Description:
Helix content: 40-55%
Largest sheet: 3 strands, antiparallel
Strand content: 15-25%
Strand order of the largest sheet: 1-3-2
Structural class: alpha+beta
Number of strands: 3
Radius of gyration: 13 Å
Order of helices and strands: HEHHEEH
Amino acid sequence: MDDKFSSEPRRRTAPDLVRVLSEPEAVEALGLSRRTWDRLKSLGDVPAKTRLSEGRIGYRVSDIAVWLDARREAVS
């Protein structure tokens, strides 16, 4: 079983903190449609990006986690 994008909580280890996902991988990991991602991106509402090279952008797993935590809503 591939638990790469498992929704089960997992303790973050050092490799997770520095792992970088490509934009398509980040979209898939978040379970978003490409259209939703593009809309959020145009609003500036996506995780912090990391420039890997002149033509390549990535998203650190730790930055994605911070972005998700900021979007969490309290249970009423």
